[in-house]
Amino acid sequence: MVRTETPVCEFGQKAIDFALPGVDGKTWTLEQCRGPKGLLVMFICNHCPYVKAVQDRLVRDARDLQALGIGTVAIMSNDPTDYPEDSFENMKKVAAELAYPFPYLLDETQAVAKAYGAVCTPDFFGYNADLELQYRGRLDASRKEAAPPDTRRDLYEAMKQVARTGKGPAEQFPSMGCSIKWRDA
Fold first, then answer.
1. Beta-bridge partners for 35
2. Is pTM, for the whole model, over 0.85?
3. How many domains does the chain have?
4. Which residues of 163-176 are buried (b: 16+ CB within 10 A; e: fewer)?
5. CATH of the domain at 69
6. What percent of the chain has pLDDT over 70?
7. Do the beta carbons of residue 151 and residue 140 sit within 8 Å?
8. pLDDT tens string for the chain (185 positions)?
9. Which of 98, 124, 156 minimizes the C-alpha distance to 6?
10. Name one GO molecular function term (predicted).
11. Is residue 185 part of a domain?
C-alpha cells in the first residue's frame, strides 16, 4: 500500500459531471449531490487505513457541512480485484454500519477518478456554489491513526469559509492516503 499525497489545489477548476450507481440503488449525478453553497467530493474506499482512521469524522463533517449548505458525495474508484474489501457489496455494508449521510458511489470504470485527477484515498475536492474548486487538502492532521479529538478540522473550516465567501483558504495541507488501485491496462 503506497502512501500518496494530493497535489496543490487548482483554484477555479470546474467540477466534472458523473452518473454513478450508489449503494442505495439509485444513480447519482453531480447536480443531485451538490448543495446550494457547494459540494465536497471525496474519493474513499473501505480497506485503506487512512480512511478507516477518519470514517467517523467523515460522517461528522458531512453532517455539519450539510447544515451549512454544502453537499457531500463519496466515490469509490479502486479495482476490487485485489482488494475484495472494496467490493460493491462491502461498500453497502460499510455505508449502512456507519450511517453515511451522503451518497456512496461506485466508479467501476475509474473514469471519474481519472477525470478529477484523484490520486489517493482519501482525496477531497471542495467546490463552491459555482462548482469551482476551492479546496484540495486534508481532513485534519490524522494519518493511519486518528489525530486527537481537539485537532483542527482543516476540511470543515475550509468548506465553512467556502460556504460563507465562495473562496477557499490560500494555505492548504495536502491529504495523504493509499494510492488508488488502478485497473491493469
1. 38
2. yes
3. 1
4. beeeebbeebbbbb
5. 3.40.30.10
6. 98
7. yes
8. 567 788 889 999 999 999 999 999 999 999 999 999 999 999 999 999 999 999 999 999 999 999 999 999 999 999 999 899 999 999 999 999 999 999 999 999 999 999 999 999 999 999 999 999 999 999 999 999 999 989 999 999 999 999 999 999 999 999 999 999 999 86
9. 124
10. oxidoreductase activity
11. no
Whether 184 maps to a domain, the answer reads no
Range of the domain at 108: 3-179
Q: Which of 73, 72, 70, 74 is nearest to 161 (CA)?
A: 70
Rounded to whole angstroms, the Cα distance separating 5 from 100 reads: 25
Residue 10 lies in a domain: yes
Name which of 166, 170, 180 is nearest 9 in CA terms.
170
- Please give the distance of CA 38 from its chain centroid, rounded to a whole number: 14
For 1-37, the pLDDT digits (tens) are 567 788 889 999 999 999 999 999 999 999 999 999 9
Q: Is residue 160 part of a domain?
A: yes
